[in-house]
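User: Predict the structure for this protein chain, please.
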Amino acid sequence: MKQNYILKVWGSTIIAAPFLMMLATAIIAAKKESEFDAGGFGFIAFAIGYGFVLSLPTFLFLYFLFPILRKRISSILKLKVTALLIGVVCVLTTFFLLYEGDSYNLNGNYAALTFSVAYSICLAVFSFIYSPAVQDL
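Assistant: Here is the predicted structure, written as structure tokens:
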């Protein structure tokens, strides 16, 4: 059985979230009238690899859970929302376990919070952009 929907959402999220974080950084830098660090584009490559490694357990969990969900949930919208909620909980759990609750604020740098929010937003957007294919249902 092909579960391309989960693969497309996961892959798009991994690639788009670092760009979203860079966009947010550029907007903040512009508002503070400070210079945007052009070296930050290396961050995108790092963040894609980082996101790949950290989200692999979430992807595999959802990939193998999706056939069970699709058998139990008949509505495409409910299936998407359920998969999205599970994905967001897994993303937040991963960052919480990695950074622990107390270290979300690391010397004024909210990296875990930033990563969590960016990946969750991208996950939500791509969950609704893509549609499960007929073979996925």
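Helices lie at 4-31, 41-72, 76-99, 111-129.
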